What we know:
The protein has about 425 residues and is an alpha/beta fold. It has helices at about 30-45, 60-70, 75-90, 115-125, 135-145, 150-155, 200-210, 240-245, 280-290, 290-310, 315, 335-340, 350-355, 360-375, 380-395, 395-405; strands spanning about 15-20, 55-60, 160-170, 175-180, 190, 195, 220, 225-230, 250-255, 325-330. Helices cover about 40% and strands about 10% of the residues. Strand 5 and strand 6 (about 195) form a beta hairpin. The chain starts with 16 loop residues before the first strand and ends in a 22-residue tail after the last helix.
Amino acid sequence: MISAPAPLAMSPKGGPIGLLLTGGGARAAYQAGVLEGVAEVRRTAGVREVGSPFAIVTGTSAGAINAAAIASHADDFDHATRCLAGIWRRVRPEEVYRAGALPLSENGGGWRTAFSVARWLRHWRKRQPRSLLDNSPLAESLRRDVPLERLPMLMAAGYLQALAISASNYSSGEHYTFYQSSRRTSPWQRTQRVAVPTRITHEHLLASSAIPFVFPASGIAMPDGHVEYFGDGSMRQTVPLADAVHLGSERILAIGSHRMTEPQGALNPNALAGYPTLAQVAGHVMSSVFLDALSSDVERMQHINHALAHVPPAILAEMDIRPVKLLVISPSERVDVIASRHTSALPSALQRMLGCSHESTKRETAQASALASYLLFDSGFTQELMALGRADALRQRDAIQAFFGWGRDVPIPSSREMEPGRAAGG
């Protein structure tokens, strides 16, 4: 129950702070851990205000689900992060998808033999499924765990300014941003990008997280009443930071689901795995869809900020552009390597299809681990990612405090004084 209005989350300079959560399937569990770490830094810095540090929340794919969960509890950030962590801490594959469209053969070849592929194609043509996996369990989980009906109350009370969810329109090929805002914000349109003001629903979350080929497209009613079909918002998302900027963010915390840069000379453990399997190629394609855009957009914004720093304030005030401060937190370890330790948690049919069943060699499991990391909705994997996210956030404690302008006069507790279970891994 919302008791009293609260001011929107502002940076020390007065502008709204935005949160961007990118896509990545099960990898998005990392974001829950980072947000737990941010909440802990906030508490130990002595911040006692109600509400959330984020006035504007944007998300794509599984990051859209995380964004909606955080926005739905914008009146209590600690509670929001606990709820989100609880979702990922207990997640199981059967709460997200059913593997009904997959071949049920016990043949361990999966994608590895022409016979298995031919048999799977016959099975596919006979059943005519709309996707590899059925995500109807995810729809049920969203209705239970993400109370979107609270958004109008939160916006009216001043706890939240806007929530934006991205999806890809299969009909037009354009990237859509659906946004719900407490302020009148004119829709923006750029090349292959369209923004639509609307009331965010669970259908938008299903559409944004519909991984191509893996999950079915989701129908969304357009303003004129007709229905168009959408898939994962990471497809054709070339500027993931743009939505938060358009909605008014002066500062943006962006949380990714892959390493932004590899240490110089670092060796990919899967690089020595031999000729790529179809699962390995598919994992590479998935990484291109989900992971590359944020790195490029961050570099672009850094260049713009650097250029604007040399513009005289009087001229800058007349320009239709402004500098935006960024803080980016991304995994410090390779997520596919973590996933390779948990592939046995996948449904058996999916293991056989990816080539990472108990009959597979270590090399085959390594080759399939990148693709498996998007589908490993298993608590063992997600808890290990959450622990990594929390640790990465706490390692950036000073940067987080400086970004938000939180005080440092409150003693930081030792690890023994922290809440029990906070550092628990998978």
